[in-house]
Amino acid sequence: MCELDRVFWALMEEGSAARAHFHTWWALRNLALPDHLPTMNNYEYVDFFHVSNSGSYKLFFLALSKIYDRDERTAGISMLKKELRNAGHADVADEVAKRIDPHEPLVRKVLNIRNKSISHNQADIPREKIYQINDVTPNEIRALIDVTCETINYVSNTLGKSNVISGPERHENAVLKMLEALGRGQT
């Protein structure tokens, strides 16, 4: 496998993870409420939903952080652009930059949250303050995930790959269908 393929497949995996975990978290924290709250609070399931909620929240930040890591040794967007150029696809690299670069201020905020609250617990700033300082909404994160996944899918199509990152509805529907089945007692 060439370096471009290795970077591409790593980004496909992390893009899929970012989207899946964000929309799982969104479904649990927003779409499922208040209708499915009794099911989620059922003593047989409540621990699962607590850990799924907090775990998905942390994991979408980690996946985005891996995608936008600036370290030249990591398989992120920066390395993708470099490897596209090395493989003679400068036009594709330029299009990736055109799509991603306008989101740089938001990427910095996401990375800052990850650095100070998700991967590390900064002791001198309360967690709530970290979120206030960075002022990022779920809709902004969703938009960043969308443009990231759309860009990775663009690269996939341009390179003739058959794989794409699925849309968000799939994950949200899976959570809601599971909650409906649990609520009906179908386990």
Explain how this protein is built.
This protein is mainly α. The chain has one domain. The protein is built from 9 helices and no strands. It has helices spanning 3-31, 37-40, 46-67, 77-86, 90-100, 104-118, 127-134, 138-158, 169-183. α1 (3-31) runs antiparallel to α8, α3 packs across α6 (104-118) and α4 (77-86) packs antiparallel against α5 (90-100). It is globular, with a radius of gyration of 18 Å. It starts with a helix and ends with a helix. The model has no long low-confidence stretch (mean pLDDT 92).
Topology:
Layout (H helix, E strand, L loop, with lengths): L2 H29 L5 H4 L5 H22 L9 H10 L3 H11 L3 H15 L8 H8 L3 H21 L10 H15 L4
Tell me the fraction of residues in β-strands, as a range.
Answer: under 5%
Number of helices: 9
Helix/strand order: HHHHHHHHH
Helix content: over 70%
Helix/strand structural class: mainly alpha
Distance between the termini: 42 Å
Task: Please give the largest β-sheet.
Answer: none
User: From the structure provided, what is the oligomeric state, counting identical versus distinct chains?
Assistant: single chain
User: Residue-averaged pLDDT, rounded?
Assistant: 92
**Overall outline:** globular
**Total DSSP E strands:** 0
Q: Give the domain tally.
A: 1
Q: Report low-confidence residues grouped into runs of 5 or more.
A: none
Radius of gyration: 18 Å
Short key terms for the protein model shown above:
187 residues, mainly alpha, 72% helix
Summarize the structure.
This protein has helices at 3-31, 37-40, 46-67, 77-86, 90-100, 104-118, 127-134, 138-158, 169-183. It has 187 residues and is an all-alpha fold. It has one domain (3-183).
